[in-house]
Amino acid sequence: MFQSIRSRLVGTYFLLALLTVGLVETLFLVGVRQYYLANIREILEQQAKLAGSFYEQYVGQEQIERSASALLEGFAGITAARMQVITPEGTVLADSLGDLSPLFMPDDHWRRAVAGEVAAWQGKLEKEPVLVVSAPLKTNGAVVGVVRYMTSLEPLEEMIRGLLFRLLLAGTAIVLLAALAGLLLANTIARPVEVITRAAARIAGGDLNVRIPKRYNDEVGRLADTLNHMASELGRLDRLKNEFVSSISHELRTPLTSIKGWVVTLLQGPPSPGEWRQGLRIIDQETDRLTEMVEELLDFSRLQAGSITLRRKETELAGLLENVVSQMLPRARRLGLKLTLEPVAGLTVFADPDRLKQVLINLLDNSFKFTPAGGKVEVRTTAGKGQVTIAVADEGCGIPPDELPLVGTRFFQGRAAKSGSGIGLALCREIVQLHGGHLKIESSPGVGTTVYVSLPLAKPHITG
Ligand SMILES: Nc1ncnc2c1ncn2[C@@H]1O[C@H](COP(=O)(O)OP(=O)(O)OP(=O)(O)O)[C@@H](O)[C@H]1O
Ligand SMILES: [Mg+2]
């Protein structure tokens, strides 16, 4: 039944206002009625007592029949209430309305008056609400009659009814106003949410250019901000993905073209033995390059999907670094680069050695690609509090400042010549982060680039 925010809020406001107004008005009416009743009763009781004590002090007759009319004349005019003088047996001797017929009265009330008490009774006589107060008339301490005052409560009830009617009108207005306030409030929530829902549906449908207008700077406004951010992020990733796919296709086409070219040449034959050798060597190289690219791509998507688990063990860092550097040394020589290693002995990390090697090879690969012949590439380690930092520094072309923040995010390739598929650094960063470490790049164009890989140490480093 309460399916929308609007109906829930309006319903709650309505019920709350209804309960509050109902409770307050009921308490008020009951209070007013009791106050007036107590007042009336007080007046009648005083009246009856006054008549009683007057009789005892100034009349004092044993025969009540003789003084009944005089008593009535003396006291009936004081109030608007009907006054009666009655014998203890119940015979009405005098009545301010002149009606001497006996009136029904509950026994208890009557008995108490005859026993000498001032008694009050409230009830209905002939369908009319009345209040009756009876007081004994005494002579020398003996009850010789009863004086009785009786008033209709109809005017009081009338007034209460009038009051009730006005309170109901005011209460209804208050409840309606509260419901209206709830509706207005609900609209400030529900409307923007509806707008956001429609926009989110369009985003889900693939329209990533949708932006949600923001009306208030509240929770709903922040939701709009978040969704807008999400949409722009999705759009950015979408563009990057497209660029990546087209550049990857381009990358894959280069080796494929040369393989195809050589295959055609060899097929057209007859090739010389020299041509055979050259052709097959190039086909071999290009196939390796293709395999490597595909391997990297697969690795990257597995890392992204979180389906790669590290095979970590305590690994001695110096040995691993020497291993990598000696593996890369021949290529450095071929390129005319000076590759040096400056390891610190006795450092142990809890890492997957194969993955760590992959990171270092990738970093060295970049340095080799972007450093001209004659340049220097350096691998250094520094140990700090509980962590070790491996730096790969080169004297290459550097990265322009505008590209620096984007380098290492997925699929980003720089403008520099020899830029590849743009996943090398992203892959490195993922692997380092899986190890609980982080990767930082510093670079100044024309001077060189240094990539820092920080990893937590497995054991505290003992120096000296
Ligand atoms: N040492 C470096 N010197 C200068 N520029 C660099 C260096 N390392 C990375 N870059 C820049 O950062 C970009 C991203 O590097 P990344 O290793 O992620 O991709 P890539 O080397 O282009 O391709 P891949 O490594 O996937 O073959 C490079 O294209 C290049 O522009
Ligand atoms: Mg690279």
Automatic annotation (TrEMBL):
Pfam families: HAMP, HATPase_c, HisKA. InterPro entries: HAMP_dom (IPR003660), HATPase_C_sf (IPR036890), HATPase_dom (IPR003594), His_kinase_dom (IPR005467), HisK_dim/P_dom (IPR003661), HisK_dim/P_sf (IPR036097), Sensor-like_sf (IPR029151), Sig_transdc_His_kin-like_C (IPR004358). The keyword Membrane applies. It is an enzyme of class 2 (transferase). Its main location: membrane. The chain crosses the membrane at residues 12-32, 163-186. It is found in: Cell membrane. GO terms for molecular function: phosphorelay sensor kinase activity. Keywords: Cell membrane, Kinase, Membrane, Phosphoprotein, Transferase, Transmembrane, Transmembrane helix, Two-component regulatory system. GO terms for cellular component: plasma membrane. It catalyses: ATP + protein L-histidine = ADP + protein N-phospho-L-histidine. Residues 247-459 form the Histidine kinase domain. PANTHER family: HYBRID SIGNAL TRANSDUCTION HISTIDINE KINASE C, TWO-COMPONENT HISTIDINE KINASE. This is histidine kinase.
